[in-house]
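Morning - zinc ion inputs below, output right after.
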Amino acid sequence: MPGDARRPLALLVALALAWSLLLWDRGARAEAPATESGADESIDHVVDVARVATPTRDEAPESALAEGEPTAIGAADPSDDVAGVEAEGPTPRPQPTDALAHLDIGGHRIEPGTKQRIVLHASESFVGASVETPVVIIRGRNPGPTLCLTAGIHGDELNGTETVRRVLARITPDDLDGTLVGMPIVNVHGFRSRTRYLPDRRDLNRHFPGSPYGSSASRIAYAIFEGVIRHCDALIDFHSGSFHRSNLPQVRGDFTSTDILELARGLGVNVAVHHPGITGTLRREATTHRIPTVLYEGGESLRLQGPEIQRGENGVLRLLRYIGMLNVPYEFEERDQEFFFDSTWVRVNHGGIFVPSVKLGDRVEVDTVLATVFDPLGGERAVVRAPVAGRVIGMAMPQVVIPGFAAFHLGDRNAPRPPPGETLPEVADLEHTE
Ligand SMILES: [Zn+2]
């Protein structure tokens, strides 16, 4: 067990718990006692979140993870050359509020020691039927952070949906200190039609945090953000490669934030890619709202890939243990993590048949041949070479292509680490990266 690695964060969580114990004690006396079985899988409520008022994070921070306090976490671990961020001194802790004892998600009271399934009324079908987004909430008997898992924002990315389902099926309230919230199918429209998009061809993951008066994508995003996301102290959003591309399992986040860096370390994914996030994505907007968020990428869309799913499930369990939320033993191995602080897309300049000559995860040097493009009626037209040294973290499957097609995503091993706390730049969409 990597106890040394967990100790600083465990200390932080312990501080958070100590902070909340008085409140918990008061709240526990006021609330009904936790049920013995702790499991209630039935659908309890249909919630129209447009009518539900939720406190903003600025008004009611709920845990240390939400506080941005883990500035000392990385610095406390001298063996870590990535998380070695200077501690910035203690942050004033806000006064506790009743939000910890009385947890309401989507307008539904979540009691300690329960596992509940609720649905958000996030949209309607063409015939006016409610399109219900399922949410599973597992609240432990003891206080702690609220970790949220989202998947299926792109309806055709199934690995994440199955990963979240497995985690939710496995965890019971007795296993937890704190609360685990799972949304395995955020984009129900897309999931039903097995497409990335919404019925109006909009990408839901470009419309957060949304608006109750905007496009359908914006309204769905708003319902989800207000109904669930604002309650999260940290968030993992699961994705897969799009349009016949596959991604090496990787975690992406804004690693100028020590909180987010810790999430990446807790997940234990071998490859971590710094990226501030595209404007309008759930990851970017949740981060902007002071909810530390990382994106977990793995595999291809429209497939259920066993190793990728298992890796994701292990990663979440590892993270739960790492941040002190999982109170049952879970053995995991230390893994080397390779951080890339920049990445680049490599495009083909000729149309034809694209045949890659490297694999996901391969390490490449400048000018390494990555692929060949063949004339459909003749021989070789061109080779595609690596512009930077690094690693293949995403790539297209063999297919026919036209000039400009983005064929490879390379982690740049020579990119310098950005300074901590750097202001996030605006980032435009690039090849549907997430
Ligand atoms: Zn996606």
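Note: The pocket of zinc ion is lined by residues 154, 157, 239, 434 (CB under 6 Å).

O.
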